[in-house]
Amino acid sequence: MRWEASSADDTRALGVRLAGLLRRGDLVVLSGDLGAGKTTFTQGLGEGLGVRGPVTSPTFVISRVHPPLGGGPALVHVDAYRLGPGTGSGEAALELDDLDLDASLEDAVTVVEWGAGVAAGLADDRLEVQLLRPHGDPGGAGDDGLEPRTVLVRAVGPRWDGVDLGGAVRGA
Ligand code: ADP
Ligand code: MG
Question: Which domains, from first to last, does the chain contain?
Fold first, then answer.
């Protein structure tokens, strides 16, 4: 599935809608360059799940738990991107294991911000969300606010069999 998000609000709105599909134990893997909108998308997920915010880039920690405000799952937000660009998939997976997130994975929705192209092998069932800036990053990793993003969503594994991604986000 593919969408164009023409503003940060669009990116966030897509997250809100996709959150409607998420259950305890789900894993969402975000890939894309620095500044592509991964944290912005995660803010939408947090809003849609109804967890305590704010969702920000965890600068000094690599993961943060956002507890639910209601009866839903918590959101575990991991910023693996900050483990270092160029981290190979093998190495990165090892570091994710080191975080010892397994306990909460079952009860929470886990979102991992990752560098581009390192999504596979984290779990059998996952939602892969790729954020692309078609024109690169001319102004640095910051808020140009104007450049549209292309968002690609791919559901992997039996958990997602028969789930209508497009229906859930139509109109986003
Ligand atoms: P990342 O977490 O991938 O590094 P951020 O979510 O921090 O990226 O977003 C970087 C900047 O891009 C933010 O200023 C955000 O508002 C902006 N942004 C996000 N999505 C879009 C979009 N669709 N169009 C324009 N700007 C966007
Ligand atoms: Mg980020």
Answer: 2-163 (3.40.50.300)
The percentage of residues in the chain with a pLDDT greater than 70, rounded to a whole number, is 71
CA distance 112 to 29: 5
Exposure string over 76-105, b if 16+ CB within 10 A, otherwise e:
bbbbbbbbeeebeeeebbeebeeeebeebe
Is the minimum distance from the CB of 108 to ligand 1 under 6 angstroms?
A: no
Buried b (16+ CB within 10 A) or exposed e, 18-44: bbebbeebbbbbbbbbbbbbbbbbbbb
pLDDT of residue 137: 55
- Ligand closest to Cα of 151 equals 1
